[in-house]
Amino acid sequence: MKSDKQDNSPMRCNGSGEEASLKKDRRTDRLLRKPVVTARTGMSVSSIYRRELAGRFPRRVPIGVRAVAWYESDIDEFIADPMGYRSP
Questions:
Q1: Per-residue confidence (pLDDT) for residue 88, from 0 to 100
Q2: Residue 6: inside a domain, yes or no?
Q3: How much is the pLDDT for 22?
Q4: Is residue 80 part of a domain?
Q5: Which pairs count as long-range contacts for 57-61, CB under 8 Å and 24+ apart, including other chains?
Q6: Strands 61-62 and 68-71: what pairing?
Q7: For the segment 6-63, what is each residue's pLDDT rounded down to a tens digit?
Q8: What letters, b where the CB count within 10 A reaches 16 and e where it falls short, cover 37-74?
């Protein structure tokens, strides 16, 4: 028997932009520091910051007074499609 309840889990989204409205679960997402991000992307720090300001690179997360990091899943999304990436 089929249930009348609607399944709103991320795996059941239909691609109509519904995924974008769901917040990512960051509890298990690693934070990557600047040297790791530059190594993975092959980009210089100045290029990363310039693209970030333009909305074409993931936003950094402050982790201290003078320390920033990026979520690994965001960097992986960028690496998958660097030219098409748009920051949410």
A1: 82
A2: no
A3: 61
A4: yes
A5: 57/85, 57/87, 58/85, 58/87, 59/87, 61/31
A6: antiparallel
A7: 544 444 444 444 454 467 788 899 999 999 999 999 999 999 999 999 999 999 999 9
A8: beeebebeeeebeebeeeeebbebeeeeeeeebbbbeb
Task: Find the length of the chain.
Answer: 88
Q: Say if 24 falls within a structural domain.
A: no
* pLDDT at residue number 21: 46
Q: Tokens 């989204």, residue?
A: 13
Q: Count, in order, helices (H) and strands (E) of the chain.
A: 4, 3
**Tokens at 12, concatenated:** 């059941």
Structural domain of residue 78, as residue ranges? 29-88
What's the total number of domains in the chain? 1
